[in-house]
Structures are given as C-alpha cells and as structure tokens.
Predict the 3D structure of the following.
Amino acid sequence: MARLPEKIGHYDIQGLLGKGAMGEVYEGLDPNLNRRVALKVLGRKHQESTEFKERFLREGRSLASMNHVNVVQVYFIGEFDGRPFLAMEFLDGNDIGGLIKKNGPLHPGDAAEVVRQAAVGLSEAKRAGVVHRDVKPSNLVVTSTGEVKVTDFGLAKALQEDLSITATGVFVGTPDYLAPEQAMGEEVDSSADVYALGCSLYHMCTGNPPFRKGGSDDHYTAVVRRHLKAERPVLKHQIPGFDEDLSDLCRRMMSRRPDVRPTLDELIQSLPPMVDRLGGRIPPRHQEVELSIEAPTTGADAGPSRAEPTQAVDTGMGRQTLIIAIAMGVAIGVIGSLVVMFVLN
C-alpha cells in the first residue's frame, strides 16, 4: 500500500478520503488557518494527458469563480509532484444519494427544500457561466449546519470557454438523470440541470430514479432510451396522496422539451410556498412509501401528459436517430464512467 504524502503544497495530510479513476482525494489541514480541506489530486496515469488536466483544472476554475453557501468552494489550485490539485471546502455532512440508500425516501417537503437550495446554488453557477451537467442526489450534500451544497462540478462546462473538452456529439454524465438533449449530444444550458434536478426530486420522493425498473433490462443504453422516448412518470400517480403541486412541478422539470421546463429562477420562486405548506426542513426526514403498481410507459407511442404539451412527444425522432444516440452512449459509456467514478469520490 502506497504511503500517504506528509504534505501536498502547504497542507498537512490527515488521511485518504477516497480514490477513483482520475485521482485521489485527501483530507488536509491548512496550518496557517487551522482549516480542514479536501485535496483532490489528479492521478499519475493522467498527468501527461492535456485533456484530463484541462477537465480537472476546469472544475477548479469553475468553482473558484463562485462563493456561495450552496456551492462547494475551492480555496486554492496548485501542483504536487507534477500533478495539479484543488484545495476544496471540507464538507461535514452526508450526500442525499447515500442518505436515500441508507434510510429510504425523503419526506416530500424536505425533498422540496433540498431542491430549492440546490436550485439557488445552480442559479449562482449559471450567473458564473457554468452548467453543472451531472446533477444527481450524490452530488447534493447536506451539511451539519443545515445547508445543501452542490458539489462535483468536474463535468461542468463553462459556457464562455472556447475549448470544449466535452465536444458536441459526445456526452458524459450519469444516465439516470441525463437530459434528452444531452444524451443526443446537443449543446446544453441550465435547463439540462433543471431536468436532472427533477429526476433527482423524483428519486428523493420514491427511493428510485425515474427510469429504473429494477430488472435485468436496466442497462446503460436502456435508461438512455427511456429518457429519449418514455412517458414521464408522475409522482401523484406513483404515491397515493402525494402533493399535486409538487408532482406537477417535478413533471415539468422532467419534460423532454427544454422550453417547457421551469427556469432555475422560477424554481426558486415557486418552491418556498410548497416547502412551507408541506413543513419542509433540513436535515431531511425519511419515510416509507408504498408505490403504485402502475409503471411508466416505455414505448415510443407514449402519450403526453397535462404537464407536457403534445408537441413535447417527439414523433419526428426516427428509429435511425434513436439507434445513433444509443450507439453513442455505448461508445462513450466507458469514458463517462471513468470520470463519474472520480466525481463520486
């Protein structure tokens, strides 16, 4: 087992927090400020790769441009042993994905409050010209002080950058929360983050991502295909007695059409009354839910819902286009997985 470095930059190393495909994350201490930090170091096998360095440093630049309570903060960007590293805010808390896995679905009001705070953080990122591109429950951390932090902007794409590592026609990201336009390799904006946040809201309330059936056909390309073609699942149909306004909002967020989805600012305005009415709070509470046996339609002939206009069903998407999208998913799935493995750390 490799020995831990004693120092990275001027930071004293306290331990190894995790290791992934792109590098390592250490717990460190800034001796000058007596402040705990998380140190993310690019892996040795990628130190000669200009592409990986650019992706890694882009995360640091994106985060360093923001200073907001709902966004994880970068304090310093440096180099260690010929590899770039980021000194980041050490989060004392738990990610929502881990909490769901351990304790089950969230109380709807608490889920709404998580989404509200995440929307505030993503809105701040938008103002900095950044699209996250990989919003999911495990990238939303609830701190011990009751704040929700959006983390892991490693897949984020600065809208003002001329260099595009994630080129048009290639997507990276977690398929469970992937916006259709992102799966098709199209240019994306903050509406893709709204879509992913809607899928995350569904996951928080039901305990499962919206397009997972729990069977052997839940493979990568099948999930991508459902994002492209399947009817959107509806929370008020899945959970008896579920709040209608929150259900309809979630359905709009998951619309196939970006122009139908609410903006981040609209979410910030519309969620507080729902949170208040439902008694939402942080830290979130968990509850058991009994899901309806009704399953979302997955065929290409799925009809539109009240929350998604008829035009939102893309009947012009031919079989050839769908095959191309799925084939593209297979081709780049390995690359996406490598990046995500590191982000999860």
Notes: Residues 158-171, 295-307, 310-345 have pLDDT under 50 and may be disordered. The first helix runs from residue 50 to 64. Residues 5 and 13 are 7 Å apart (CA to CA).
